[in-house]
Amino acid sequence: MKILNYGSINVDHVYSVDHISRAGETLAARSYQVFAGGKGANQSAALALAGAVVYHAGRVGPEGAWVVDKLAGLGVDVRHVAVHDEPTGHASIQVDPHGQNSIVIFAGANEHQDMDTVRSVLGHFQPGDILLLQNEINGIYDLINEGSQSGLRVVYNPAPAAPWVRDLPLHLVDTIILNQTEATALTGVDDVPRQLEQMASSWPNLDCVLTLGTAGMAYRGRAGAFALPAVSVAATDTTGAGDTFIGYYLAAIAGGMAPADAAARAVRAAALCVCRPGAMDSIPAAAEVS
C-alpha cells in the first residue's frame, strides 16, 4: 500500500526564548536555528522513517530545494513536488525552556496547488492507497472529493485549526487525526468524551484519533474505543510531536497493524521526538522506537 501525502513544505526559523512573547513585547532570543519543516513535510519524514512507502506532493519556492533534497534523503519519493515562483512557506517558532511553542506561518508556495496538477498526481495511485492531508495548503475540499472519487483512503489532519473545517465533506474521510484544540474548533465543545461522541455521531464511518499531549491519546471508530497514556519524558521542544505521531500511526496502519497497537507505537515515537530540538530533525528512526 502506498501513501500519498499532499502537503506543505516549510522552512522553520526557531528562536529559543525565556518565555513566549506577549502582545506588544519585544523579546531577545537566546538562540536561533533553521530547520526543514511544515506539517506535510514533517509527516512525510515520519512516515518514511517509520518504514512506510510514502510519496510527497506539493510546491516549494526556488530557494526550498534543500528541503526537498532532505526529504528524498530520508526515503520520501518527491517526484510530485513542483517548484513555484512564490517563496517557500516558512514558520517563525518560539520555544520556551519548558518545550512549549508559539508558531506563525507564512504559506508561500504551499497555497498554489492547482486542480489539474492534483488530478494528474492522483492518477498515479490506486484504489486502496492512502491520501494524507493537512490544512497548510489550499484546495483541501477538492482534494478530499477527488481522493475519495479515486478510491483512495483519505486521512485528514485538520491542522492548523480553522473554522471552515466544519464545511468540508468529512463523510468522505476515512480517518481524522487531530489534537484537542483542533477537536474543539471542529465540534464546538472542549470535553474529550463529548468531542469523540459528537464526531462519532456526525460521521459514523470515521475513525477519530485524538492526541492529548501529556495526557496521551484517545480513539473512537470502527475498532471500538480506547485511550492510551503518554510516555513520561522531560520535553525540550514539542514542535514535531503531533506530526511524528501521525507518521508512525499511519505507517503502522498501512502495514496492517490494529489501531491500538499502531497508537501505542506512535505514542512512543512522539515521546522520543519531544526530547530533541526542531521538527523534522527530531523525528526518531524506526530502530529507536521499541
Structure in words:
There is one protein chain. The protein has one domain (3-288): UDP-N-acetylmuramoyl-L-alanine:D-glutamate ligase, CATH 3.40.1190. Helix 3 (115-122) runs parallel beside helix 4, helix 5 packs across helix 6 (192-202) and helix 7 (241-254) packs antiparallel against helix 8 (259-273). It is of the alpha/beta class and 290 residues long. Helix content is 30%, strand content 25%. The chain starts with a strand and ends in a 17-residue tail after the last helix. Strands 5-4-1-8-9-10-11-12-13 form a nine-stranded mixed sheet, with helices on both faces. Strands 3-2-6-7 form a four-stranded mixed sheet.
Question: Quick recap of the structure?
Answer:
The protein has 290 residues and is α/β, with parallel strands linked by helices. It is built from 8 helices and 13 strands. It has a single domain, classed as UDP-N-acetylmuramoyl-L-alanine:D-glutamate ligase, CATH 3.40.1190.
